[in-house]
Amino acid sequence: MYENKVVRIKLKHGIVEMKPEQDYQEVIDKYTKEGWRFVQIFAPPIVGNGYATFYDLIFEKVKNV
């Protein structure tokens, strides 16, 4: 059996570009070192302004029973 973890990375929108509040590669490195396996990055449907407001990083690891 697996347990899952979802880490939300909020995006800041500037005039020309959007920037994540955290470096997602550093977040992935952090959790994989803790034994989590990176599964997927999920971007939600685009909102009215034409931009996503966050990314979700999805991790899993074997659950200790």
What is the H/E string?
EEHEE
**Whole-number average pLDDT?**
88
Strand arrangement, major sheet: 2-1-4-3
Uncertain spans, ≥5 residues at pLDDT below 50? Answer: none
Cα separation of the termini: 9 Å
Q: How many β strands by DSSP?
A: 4
Rg calculated over all Cα atoms: 14 Å
Verbal overview:
With 65 residues, the protein is α+β, with helices and mostly antiparallel strands. The protein contains one helix and four strands; from the N terminus they run ββαββ. It has one helix at 24-33; strands spanning 2-13, 18-20, 37-42, 54-62. The longest helix has 10 residues, at 24-33. It is elongated and about 50 Å long.
What descriptive keywords fit this protein?
65 residues; elongated; alpha+beta; four-stranded antiparallel sheet
The gist of it:
The chain is α+β, with helices and mostly antiparallel strands. It has one helix at residues 24-33, and strands spanning 2-13, 18-20, 37-42, 54-62.
Give the SSE map.
Elements: E1 2-13, E2 18-20, H1 24-33, E3 37-42, E4 54-62
Antiparallel strand pairs: 1-2, 1-4, 3-4
